[in-house]
Amino acid sequence: MGEQDNNKPGEEPTVAGGDATEVSASEIAATEYVDQGAVTATATATGFDRAAELAKAAQSQQGRLLKGRFVLEDVLGRGGMGLVYKARDLRKVEAEDRNPYIAVKVLGQQFKEHPQAFVSLQQEAVKSQKLAHPNIVTVHDFDRDGDTIYMTMELLKGDPLDALIKLEAPFSKEVALRYFRDLCAGLEYAHKRDLVHSDFKPGNIFVTTGGTVKILDFGIARAANKNALSHDFDAGELGALTPAYATEEMVRGEPPSFSDDIYALACVLYVMLTGEHPYQRKSAADARKAKLKAARPECLNNAEWQALSAALSLDKAKRPATIAAFRDALIPPRRGSAIKGLAALGLVVVVGGGWLGWQQYRAGQAQAEAVQQRLETAQDCFFNGDYACAAENALVARNLAPDNPEAARLLEVARKEQAERDAEVLVETRIEEARTCLDAQDFACARIKAQEVLALQPGEPRATSLLESASRGSRQLKIGGFLQRGNECLAAGRLDCAQEALSDAEAAGASAAELFPLRQQVEAQQAQLAADRAALDEQLSALRSRAEDCYRQRDYDCVEQAADDVLALDGTNTRAVELKQAVATAREQQRFNQQTADTFLKAARDCLERKNYSCTIAKSESALAIVPGYAPARSLINQAQQAQQQAKRNISIE
């Protein structure tokens, strides 16, 4: 948009400030504006106050406010004649326009002293303002604020063609030819107004997000008719020429010609189709010296290549005379039969007299004149693109003169063209509906609308792109749902659930980068759980060893305590349960042994009272055998043994 390509011959444009990143002549992206202050009851007052605040803030920074109206913000690009800014139009802010942004091109400091600089920019604005066409950028106004000369233009959203070529070339044949048709429409419109672009190249072409192709920078376009302007300053004096897209005539400084734009357009189309320049980025003059020849793109048939190679000819005489001739040679009109029919209709005028006389003979002068008038009206409507009008009048003519072949033929072609137009309108409607659905993230709706377009026009590139976008969006939505479920599972500590969500997302086509955050958290928790398990296993092992030692020592209280500690950490630990059961069994056996030992001990005491010391000792030893170390049993044995010895001492021999 404007002079933004810093176009010294042979150089590529760079971002203002010396950044090495390449930009095109109009690397401009629109920013949606929402007035956050629009909350009062009087909307106009709110917009006015907001505009006043912005103006006051801009005035504090020298050079930011132009004409008290345009607040310069971001630098969008640097060109041969100055800088292009994204600017906020305070008049739009006052009106609370949701998108108050425009583009402003300011004449560069290095050209302010040029004697014809002001005239050049003024001529640029006048020429560009004459070009009101959907495929040419809109220029609003030209003005100056003190010694600052500037012009205002529409702000575009999308990508410059040279950037798209670097990222995506070669384009598909369908996309390249669609862009080519739009470029032809814009150039043909300018040529009909005697304007030659003179610096047509990918850097001066912009593809909006809506798919519209716009031609930028008619700043060096010079009138083909030198009498068209009162001032003849040649902006080419500023070095605005790109050799790779310049004809020999341009390099030699010859007057501008429509053929210059035709050659440049052919080079641009070749680059879109192949990703390469037809002559290794050399000017036509250098290409001739090097005897270079362009190679045929694989996607073109013989007729198409013949049309393109003619436009690429280094000889001006061999190129098509007009943009329309180039376009029609490369892409024959679909309504060829209609044109032939209309050519035949021209005979009506030639033979009208004879046919009219015949009709006069049959039905009289009045009816013949009515038929002739209807046919002429139908032809006018047809050539003006009003096919419904053409069909209506041709139908009346046919009804008045059923044998008139021209009326029948015109009716047929008009209906055919109207049907094609209706189909095109339907396609455009479905395309817009698909885009609306896509913006609303209703991917199923977008997919259905795109498929409807493809059913009407198989291979339609915008519908194909929308269908792919809908598929990608649907996939991303599905992947996003899996990843969200995985994060929820992770937050709840359900690692198995999170791992399952990861697997589902991967199966849905998620990339490694998309899976990485969740996968990293899952692996971190798995590692932490493994560490905790290892520490727990070590603690459980120590407690189990202690319980085993106590059991061997028959310290059942110790066994029970250690087993309880194990079960507190691991409620299903089988060895701890077994040890507790073994302790319970041992304690029960211990009680039974004690009872048995006490029974023997009671019998031993009875024996001692009867002074049957041998019986006492035998019963007590039985109790000791059952309960080793049982003190009462040991005591009874001692008593019985002492009584036996005393009895032996009391026995005397007579």
Alpha-beta content class: alpha+beta
Termini gap? 154 Å
Helices, by number, come to 22
Compute the average pLDDT.
Answer: 81
CATH class category label of the largest domain: Mainly Alpha
Order of the strands making up the biggest sheet: 3-4-5-6-8-7
Radius of gyration, Cα only, in angstroms? 49 Å
Helix content: 55-70%
Second rung of CATH, namely the architecture of the largest domain: Orthogonal Bundle
CATH fold naming of the largest domain: Transferase(Phosphotransferase), domain 1
Residue stretches low in confidence (pLDDT < 50, at least 5 long) are 1-45, 221-239, 336-363
Q: How many domain modules?
A: 5
Can you walk through the features of this model?
By secondary structure, the chain is an alpha+beta fold. The chain folds into five domains: 46-155, 2-Layer Sandwich (Phosphorylase Kinase, domain 1), CATH 3.30.200; 158-332, Orthogonal Bundle (Transferase(Phosphotransferase), domain 1), CATH 1.10.510.10; 366-422; 441-510, no CATH class; 597-651, no CATH class. Helix content is 59%, strand content 9%. It contains 22 helices and 13 strands. Strands 3-4-5-6-8-7 form a six-stranded antiparallel β-sheet. A three-stranded antiparallel β-sheet has the order 9-11-12. Strands 1-2 form a two-stranded antiparallel ribbon. Helix 5 runs antiparallel to helix 7 and helix 20 (574-609) runs antiparallel to helix 21.
